[in-house]
Amino acid sequence: xxxxxxxxxEVEKLDEVLGFLDSFLEDSGCGMKEQMQLDVALExxxxxxxxxxxxxxxxxxxxxxxxxxxxxxxxxxxxxxGTPYNPLAREDPDVTLSAAERQIGGxxxxxxxxxxxxxxxxxxxxxxxxxxxxxx
Length: 136
Hints:
Elements: E1 2-8, H1 14-26, H2 32-53, E2 60-69, E3 72-80, H3 107-115, E4 118-124, E5 127-135
Helix pairs in contact: 1-2, 2-3
């Protein structure tokens, strides 16, 4: 069972996106810790699309939510027609360095990779497709 929305990729739409996710999670058996991790991960990925996928134009992003039973969890898929970009190809930041010593960027996707059970990216049929799975 799933739900899907297509929304303009603008940071101002973030509350609507997170509300969509949270309402889906209410009936899913998701714990508070997992919900917070999913909220942070979806925020990071949505904001990245809003800032970089269509610059300087505007475009849409589709967000699909699916429940899974084996293992129990949720799969979140974002797809957009913006500039092709695989966030998983970026090298992880060296988190042993201080913030002043570390290169700018990459920390958000690093947090997504560490907090989700699976992450996947492909560029197919002119679309960026990013999928993340959280088990609970």
